[in-house]
Amino acid sequence: MGDTAGGATSGVGRTGPPSALGRLSDAARGTWVAENRAAGARLAACYELFRECVRQDEAGAGDGSPPGHAVVDPFDVCTGYVVAAMPISTGRAATMISLAAGLTERYPAVMAALSAGRMEQRAAELLARQMATVDPAVLSRVQQEVVDDYLAALEAGERLGARSVRESVDAIIARYDADGIRQRRDAAARGRGVHIRKGADGMTNLWATLASDEAAVLAEAIDQRAAEFANPDPRTPAESAQAPADAEGADMSDYPVPERRADALLSLVCGDRGRTRVTGLSPDEPPAPLRPRVTVFGCGRGLDPQVEFPRTGDSALRALLDMLAASDGASLEHVDPAIGAADDARRALTYRPGAALARRIRLRDGTCRHPGCTVSADNCDIDHCRPFDHADPQRGGHTTECNLMCLCRRHHRFKTFSGWIYDLAPDGTLVVVTPDGSTMLTRPSGPLAAYRREQARAEQDAWDTQQTRNPEPDTADGDLQSEPTYWARRAARHRAERAERARANRAGPDRAGPDNARPPTGRWWDRNKPVVSRAEQQVQQLLDEILDPPPF
Fold first, then answer.
1. Is 384 helix (H, G, I), strand (E, B) or coil?
2. Helix (H/G/I), strand (E/B), else coil: 289
3. CA 399 → CA 90, 168, 291, 362, 395, distances in Å?
4. Which residues touch 208 (CB under 8 Å, ≥6 apart)?
5. SS3 call for 207
6. pLDDT per residue of the chain (552 residues) written in tens, 0 to 9
7. What are phi and psi of 57, to 5 degrees?
8. Which of 1, 142, 284, 388 could cross-link to 397 by cystine, CB 3.0-4.6 Å?
9. Of 516, 521, 488, nearest to 501 (Cα)?
10. 93, burial (CB in 10 Å: exposed 0-12, middle 13-18, buried 19+)
């Protein structure tokens, strides 16, 4: 972990914010705002160009239109004009026009924030994608709340990753149109595919869009084969000198991980058995089973459990059940979501965290916690926010959940030697203060933190409902009336029922209201009209009191 006694949390010895850095930071901020405004103006111009192409297309249609007029789409015409105006490809032009039309017509609140310079274009694209399937009847309210929430977080110094943004937007959408989230996920499932594109310098780009459970199995197989390539040749030096230097015996331990994964992928596709001398398997022996990790959190309230593959993202419960049905077995580990559940008083005074606590920190953080960093928590160091005191561990910097966080190696060193101030809250919220006084905030994005936030939202909703029904005396408005008691509600219901029966009797069968079932007419009905006496009404009222007692 490499903590030092001076630590990044003390801030001792700082001489104050350097004026040059402050001025340059303000200048960088100004150019960011100007770039956002320019992006908004560019999209607005593209939309006006598209609308003009549509108007000319509609004006040119008719009996006197030239042959083949209907074949030319106004969108294609606009794309051609954009390519002529800007040195960009047709694909980028089409994407720009689609975004311009979507933000202007469907998401005006997002477009306004972009044009004002408060939001960058990438964030606008992300918000638009998340709200793509929201019901138009509630879209205006949803997008306004989404934009307000996002801008408030930015102005408060919070640095949101893409996953955090998607999570917060979905939480808002779920309150208005939960079916829209399901529709978006169904549409995303239809986007599976493998793509190959020519690269440069003799290389080719290959990428795939898979379901999270499929990608988890593939990633596990690739990493398992890459681990075989990473091991050095187990043969003795004499055996290595006598054997030919083939690919199977070559030492690839110094190769970077992505390069070993490329070799592993090609090895799997070609059906190679792998390095049998390294794994110790005979050619006829089956390979080791794949065991991808998965995290499941029960949400309660009738909702489906949350399924999270640490390497590939969230998935559906049905996909996990299908995977378990096709597997030979699984190992289950219960995780208590309570903060500090894995802390141990004795281990708190040791420098290295236990395996259970380390897994818990990675499960909570998801990525490197430094603002703006997206390195996976599995590839990060676990660092003490307040430095561990090796001379006297009792003095502070304990090895507990509230004092540990994930930092990639680069930001681990940066925290230790930069002089920036880091403060970690019990729920994992990290506040970072720069030497010039700027404050940034990041929240953990792992599945454990997401589960805790979901539970906190549920409790907040329950509290708001309680306060609506029974507000506090010192916070209620003067004209707010208390909730009616059981007896008041019962009396009101009985009055309404008696009034309805009386109205039906006065109206008669031929003048029954639209809410009442019209009784049949005929001789039998005329001879057998029901007679409702006052005594019968009193008996019915007495029966209601006996059969419908109060709840106490």
1. strand
2. coil
3. 55, 31, 30, 14, 12
4. 193, 194, 195, 215
5. strand
6. 555 444 443 333 344 445 688 888 889 999 999 999 999 999 999 999 999 999 887 766 555 556 555 567 889 999 999 999 999 999 999 999 999 999 999 999 999 999 999 999 999 999 999 999 999 999 999 999 999 999 999 998 898 888 889 989 998 999 899 899 989 988 888 888 999 998 888 899 999 998 888 888 888 888 888 888 776 555 545 555 555 544 444 556 678 888 888 988 888 888 876 655 445 555 555 666 777 777 776 655 545 667 777 667 777 777 777 777 777 767 777 788 889 988 988 899 999 999 999 999 999 999 999 998 989 898 999 999 999 998 888 888 899 999 999 999 999 999 999 889 999 999 999 999 988 888 999 999 888 888 888 888 888 888 887 777 666 655 555 555 556 777 888 888 888 888 888 888 877 655 544 444 444 444 444 555 555 556 666 666 666 666 565 555
7. -65, -40
8. 388
9. 516
10. buried
Q: Across the beta sheet with 295-297, what order do the strands follow?
A: 295-297, 306-309, 313-315
Q: Which tokens go with 95?
A: 């994407």
Report the distance separating Cα 305 and Cα 317, nearest Å. 7
Selection from 262, 324, 272, 256 nearest residue 296 by Cα? 324
Type of residue found at 163? R
- Distance of alpha carbon 94 from alpha carbon 83, whole angstroms: 9
Which amino acid belongs to residue 515? Answer: D
**Gap between the Cα atoms of 57 and 63, Å rounded:** 13
- Helices 162-176, 136-155: axis angle to 10 degrees equals 140
DSSP lists the bridge partners of residue 215 as none
Taking the CA of residue 492 as centre, how many other CA atoms within 13 Å lie in the half-sphere pointing to its CB?
6
Do you know the residue count of the chain? Answer: 552
